[in-house]
Amino acid sequence: MLNFIIVAQEGMIAEINKLLDEELDKDNVHNVFFSIYSPTKSIDLHSVKGSFSDGSLVSEANPFYTASIGKTFTATTLGILVDRGKLHFDDPISKYLPDEIMDGLHILNGVDYKDSIRLSHLLQHTSGLPDYFNRETIDGSTGIFDLIMTDKEHFWQPSELIQFSKAHFRPNFAPGKGYLYTDTEYVLLGMIIEEVSKMPLHDFFAKEIFEPLSMNSTYLNLRSTGKNALGKMAELYAGGYEISTFKSLSADWAGGAIISTGKDLIRFQIALFGTELVSEETLNKMQEWTYETVGMTYGYGLRKIKFSELDPSFPNLEVIGHSGSNGTSMYYCPDEDIYLVGTLNQLESSKDAVILLARVLEKCTNF
């Protein structure tokens, strides 16, 4: 039986590496990372492919930009503070934010909703606030994504991002009356965490999550460094542009600026779903789902994907975790006890990353 397991795993690894090679062969993909861990299936695979622009190969020692996977860390941090009695999910955000942030934050059809926004609304993207990353501003001015590309030395502060959102966008609906994925909400959550904890967000992440879990290669981009970051960050691309070193990436903060590795992110997932970081009650609250789109629902910094609803050819399985705009994935499949983490490090690869996730999971369950 042992030999059969070894042969089966060798076959699975070969099939998964074939999938990764197919992604790497695409013109706009320069590096691919994928990690799979399952204690019950005896799987512990970490595959890294591709190279840096100078020709040197990427490796497991190179952490990667996780983008919106960071929302799960921000939501988990809120959960930690809830468990400690420092705040409550139903608290109005005006309790923690200064007037210069709250004034003009949410005015819709002449009604000021600033005092109606709850922490839960921000966590679940139901506040109605606009997304400052939206490329179409109400006044025709240049959006932040284009500013990131053209003013790469600009270092964005959180309050500056909120002011940008208020100046160039308008709310979409009253709090609790709809769903709209927006980074604006998570910047506000980061500011609240700093106000309540009296610590910079990156320090709180390090003290309460990274250090206790020995996530030594994980840190918040441009604001801290890993305790034991062995290699430079894998290069991140927007189309044909390599943007990893842009200071303007500071526009991505509490909504998704964490740098990490597959091993570290699996360690985080095990701790989160094992209630090492938050209580069972809080974890259950984080998994109260609202409709996002076909095949996807959203909780508090967590997304659930039902693959068969996305495409009948996909496996009839669900995963819980988060995705990022650069083709990053961090998910757990409870039915199969499989943790999956990966990235294509390309901003145009979000859809391809979901397809890859489904196909990799399918290979894991077929052997």
Automatic annotation (TrEMBL):
The keyword Acyltransferase does not apply. InterPro entries: AmpC-like (IPR050491), Beta-lactam-related (IPR001466), Beta-lactam/transpept-like (IPR012338). It holds the Pfam family Beta-lactamase. Residues 50-361 form the Beta-lactamase-related domain. GO terms for molecular function: hydrolase activity. Keywords: Hydrolase. Transmembrane segments: none annotated. This is Serine hydrolase. It comes from Mangrovivirga cuniculi.
